[in-house]
Specification:
- Homodimer.
- By secondary structure, this protein is an alpha+beta fold.
- 16% of the residues lie in helices and 43% in strands.
- It folds into two domains: 124 residues, Diaminopimelate Epimerase, Chain A, domain 1 (Roll), CATH 3.10.310.10; 133 residues, Diaminopimelate Epimerase, Chain A, domain 1, CATH 3.10.310.10.
- The longest helix is centred in the first third of the chain and has 13 residues.
- It starts with a strand and ends with a strand.
Length: 277
């Protein structure tokens, strides 16, 4: 099977062109290929497929084999893949995902895509739709108990569920302990992506993420979007800010006119390869 390894801010996935390749059991394949010792090594597997309604369809599977609705870093790389490999000549494309249709606006330099701006759509704030078990109208700065300690959590869906918590010092925060417990808390019937955020100023947020089904990753695009939305709702940031992740920076804007969230960031090809299945 031919594949391409790509990364967005260090959030790395294995991309397979399903116009020419077949993946019979993508869940199983994601677990095998993502293993960093016995496989290729990645945060998961992304399938680039034909779509009846859009230019392309994206399916993505975490390293534990679970299918996710969306990934902001991965979808930027899908845009770069299809343009750089001649599957499209358009610089504005629509991609079908389990979280709905996403529109990509690609900036091309020397014939290759360098930056991608993604219309991530409207944030979902109703607890039942995120989903989170709550009788509140919105889940903003609500108490969640982890190991007897109370965390103030704001929940947002960007097509996939996120729980955002603010901390004093993100570098010293015990993400490896609190992250998995937050992910699997009974409040979240479909588990949760957990973002922990330090506010540097109204235009700069520093974030680490524990991704559902993958653990800590170097970046999470939907998580950065959820963080910006949460920060506006909590009155700690402007509607456009830089979100600093371990793998680099994303520019996130929650547009007041259309209520859509826009994410701008890089997409990078690492290498092409072929693997015996």
């Amino acid at each position: 099977m031919k594949f391409t390894k790509m990364q967005g801010l260090g959030n790395d996935y294995i991309y397979v062109n399903c116009f020419t390749e077949k993946v019979a059991d993508p869940s199983k394949m994601a677990k095998i290929l993502s293993d960093r010792h016995f496989g290729i090594g990645s945060d998961g597997l992304v399938l680039i497929m034909p779509s009846e309604t859009c230019d392309f369809k994206m399916r993505m599977f975490n390293s534990d084999g679970s299918e996710a609705e969306m990934c902001g870093n991965a979808i930027r790389c899908v845009g770069k893949y299809v343009y750089d490999n001649g599957l499209t000549q358009k610089t504005v494309i629509k991609i079908e995902t389990l979280a709905g249709i996403k529109i990509l606006d690609m900036k091309v330099e020397n014939g290759k895509v360098a930056m991608v701006r993604v219309d991530m759509g409207e944030p979902v704030l109703q607890p039942a739709l995120i989903p989170v078990k709550s009788e509140e109208e919105l889940f903003i700065s609500q108490p969640v108990l982890i190991d007897g300690k109370e965390f103030k959590v704001t929940c947002v869906s960007m097509g996939n569920p996120h729980a955002v918590t603010y901390v004093e010092d993100i570098d010293k925060f015990p993400l490896d302990i609190i992250g998995p417990k937050m992910e699997n808390d009974s409040l979240f019937p479909k588990r949760i992506n957990a973002e922990f955020v330090q506010v540097l100023d109204s235009k700069t947020l520093k974030m680490r993420v524990w991704e559902r089904g993958a653990g800590e990753t170097l970046a999470c695009g939907t998580g950065a979007c959820a963080t910006l939305v949460s920060s506006v709702l909590n009155g700690v940031s402007d509607r456009c800010a830089v979100v600093k992740l371990l793998g680099g920076d994303l520019i996130i804007e929650w547009n007041e006119n259309d209520n859509h969230v826009y994410m701008t960031g890089p997409a990078t090809k690492v290498f092409d390869g072929e693997i015996e299945i």
